[in-house]
Please model this.
Amino acid sequence: MGKIRHYRWIVVGLLFAATAINYIDRQVIGLLKPLLEKEFNWTESQFARIVMAFTLAYAIGLLLSGRVIDRIGTKLGFAITITVWSIAGMLHALARSVWSFSLVRIILGLGEAGNFPAAVKTVAEWFPKNERGLATGIFNSGTSVGVVLSVLLVPLILSFGSWQQVFWITGALGFIWLAAWWVFYEVPSKQKRLTAEEYEWIRSGQEEAAQVQVAIRWKKLFAFRQTWAMITGKGLIDPIFWFFLFWLPSYFSSTFSLDLKKPSLELMIIYTATTLGSIGGGYLSSLLIKKGWPVLKARKTVLLIFAFTELSVFFTQFANDAWVAVLLISLAVAVHQAWATNIFTLATDLFPKEAVSSVAGIAGMAGAVGGIFFPLLVGYILDRFKAVDHLTGGYHLIFSICAFTYLLAWLIIHLLTRKSGRVELAELIPKG
Model:
């Protein structure tokens, strides 16, 4: 078996592809929303309950999957999670009611929950600290590419098939990825395609690994302020991005009469911007670290920059032209992905890699819990204000909430980590 230079970037490519498929399967229902609403006569609140079913299951799945992946490892953990969510994605084709759509969304949420804990742990295993921000940004950009691909795929499939076929085809993509993952992935110590030079480079930039398998007190993670900083960074912010995923197509359809049965240049531009934000955000913090900045200071500085930039989404409510809205929302979602990249990387900065997946799972669970309640609020606001303003009813208030939440989140993160350093492995291992 031949050696391959820079094999760690091939690993990132696999993580990127998995994340893209994750978001294709997640986003399909948002693009089909106007079609499904007409066929099944859903209200905004009923659609919100379907979204809530997914986010509730996603929250539970994140809480469990992080711990499981820390125990069974990234190779098997990723294989299990993508199998579950791919089957669930295909089962959407059999749903016919709010209840049945909610059920398959629950299975999808449980499966998709394993993606980010496994991906963050893989980055911690394969990259030195000064490359983790960029590596995380690259795989996290898969969220953006997945959404863009869904914007292209859904109208294409609808042009020759039904909405059921959309779910069958997109759900099957995960099994193609699974074959590649099983063939090409192993942890660095077992990867025979890895050169000795690259293996030493990876090891030289990491903390010392435990010599034996350790049992971490999972509940003890909640005793650390660093864990609560991660919970804040995801819990307050993730629901905003999910709003952009699930309601943005409907917003452009109702406000600017966008035809969602055709590929949408507006949506493709917006979701492509998230790719730039994800990679750029990871690159910026990694650049500051390479220039000698303390790791935590670099991460928090770029988070503050992004929080101020996100205030621009407030002005979306005054946009009377679709392309002005595209510009403002593109900036907003790009900044969100830059924020998300640095929050994920923060887990590898604050915790040993033996606990990274668990911490990422806990933080992701917090984001999903926020995602349970925010869609209900969105649905309530939209239904209530629709009678007042049939074009933009309710979206004004929602965009205002989105604009200011990032600064609040940054302030809490700063206060929680101001006097806190890295959690050492010994602090997490049971004594005696």
About this structure: The first helix runs from residue 7 to 31. The chain has a mean pLDDT of 85. The CA atoms of residues 227 and 391 lie 42 Å apart.
